[in-house]
Design brief:
This protein is an alpha+beta fold. About 30% of the residues lie in helices and about 35% in strands. The protein folds into two domains: about 100 residues, 4'-phosphopantetheinyl transferase domain (Ribosomal Protein L22, Chain A); about 100 residues, 4'-phosphopantetheinyl transferase domain (Ribosomal Protein L22, Chain A, Alpha-Beta Complex).
Amino acid sequence: MPVYQIFSIESHTKVYVWNISESFNELFRSVVLKDVSLARLEKMKAESHQKGFLAVRKLLEVAGYDDFDLYYDDFGKPNLKDGKHISISHSNDFSVIAVSDCNLGIDLEILKDKTLKLAPRYMDVSHLENLSKEEALEKATVIWGIKESIFKIKNIEGISFKNHIFEKKFELSVGKCSAELRFENQVEQFNIQHQKVDSYILVIAFRAN
């Protein structure tokens, strides 16, 4: 069973990472899906997305749940029937879920040059000054993940990554930083944790107390 990593964040959150090495058929035969999930799976055109979807269901089992415990609200945000918070992400050969007592967002991104090339569209590129190309790529990917994770928490139409979500300056080696959402005349603060997982960047956001 290719559970790549399981780790806790303090006492309130557990993160589960799956390295997808199975075929689609192997994954499909190993899970039980409700009808709405089967319909959603059938609509996915890319096999990589289908496998990521199924790997998330395997992670649910590892966490003590199954597909019937998971549901999505009208905005597409995942929820668990027992009231715990859950966030989900998938990228290439990895899927990840986080189960928490706190509202959270999680994002997993493979390191790819395109993220750095697109950086001016979603971030303040001055945060990448005086870095090597490798460091700049990692930092740009963390910043993309910060914005994705915060958006997953808020999930409000109209939020712009570049114009509404702002990361404070941070050092990659620390693994923690903060960010804020400035939207509709309100400012909300978020605590961020990030780490490298194989050739991916994993980012988790929590609303600050």
